[in-house]
Every structure is written in structure tokens, then in C-alpha cells.
Design goal:
By secondary structure, this protein is mainly alpha-helical. The chain is built from two helices and two strands; from the N terminus they run ββαα. The N and C termini lie far apart (35 Å).
């Protein structure tokens, strides 16, 4: 999923991103050229999981 002059996976690797945050970036980058709303929803799933993991790591309880 090339955006401009750089492959998204090269950016993800360069930034040292993990699986969850890397997938958020991947789906955001490809949504306009490929998956549209479906990719935005996929990015949302990974972002929600990433938030949940950060909350656990920091001892924050989710209040829904």
C-alpha cells in the first residue's frame, strides 16, 4: 500500500510500530484507494484493541 513515495510497511517498520498500531496505520492509509468504509472499520477495531491494551498496562478501568 504505497502512499506517495513510501511503502506503508516501510513506514511502520521505520517507526518501530507494533502489530496493533501498525494495522491502524495500514488500514487508514489504504481506505481511500481500496477498502473505503470497511477499512476504516478495521482500523477502528485495531485502535479500540490498542486503547484497551494501553488502559490495562496503565491500570485504567474502562467505564462504559
Amino acid at each position: 500500500y504505497k502512499r506517495g513515495k513510501i511503502e506503508v510497511w516501510d513506514f511502520i517498520e521505520d517507526q518501530g510500530l507494533g502489530f496493533l498500531d501498525g494495522n491502524v496505520i495500514k488500514y487508514i492509509c489504504r481506505q481511500r484507494g481500496k477498502g473505503g468504509l470497511i477499512d476504516l472499520r478495521k482500523a477502528k477495531v485495531y485502535l479500540e484493541k490498542l486503547i484497551s491494551e494501553e488502559e490495562k498496562k496503565n491500570g485504567i478501568q474502562k467505564h462504559d
